[in-house]
């Protein structure tokens, strides 16, 4: 069985991506991404919630991150 999980996050970079070249030319990209949510809790108070995500990309996706980082 072939399973694919896909998530799309929209947020702000914590810092520039770290790009590494691995053996045989493969690429690795690591970066942190902040996403924010605002909502009103049961007490009627506005809550701003920021979540940090540590992202690791391999192969072609890492190459795309590197190309986007250069622009």
Distance between the termini: 39 Å
Q: What is the overall pLDDT average?
A: 91
Q: Could you estimate the helical fraction of the residues in percent? A: 10-25%
Helix count, DSSP H or I runs of 4 or more residues:
1
Shape: elongated
Indicate the radius of gyration in whole angstroms. 16 Å
Give helix and strand order, one letter per element, not per position: EEEEH
Secondary structure category: alpha+beta
Features:
single chain, about 70 residues, alpha+beta, four-stranded antiparallel β-sheet, 1 helix, elongated
Please explain how this structure is put together.
- With 71 residues, the chain is an alpha+beta fold.
- It has 1 helix and 4 strands; from the N terminus they run ββββα.
- The protein has one helix at residues 59-70; strands spanning 12-13, 18-21, 27-40, 46-58.
- Strands 1, 2, 3 and 4 form a 4-stranded antiparallel β-sheet that branches.
- The longest helix is centred in the last third of the chain and has 12 residues, at 59-70.
- The protein is elongated.
- The model has no long low-confidence stretch (mean pLDDT 91).
């Amino acid at each position: 069985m072939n399973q694919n999980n896909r998530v799309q996050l929209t947020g702000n970079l914590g810092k520039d991506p770290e790009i590494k070249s691995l053996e045989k030319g493969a690429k690795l990209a690591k970066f942190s991404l902040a996403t924010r949510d605002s909502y009103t809790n049961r007490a009627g108070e506005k809550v701003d919630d920021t979540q940090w995500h540590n992202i690791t990309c391999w192969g072609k996706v890492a190459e795309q991150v590197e190309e986007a980082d250069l622009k």
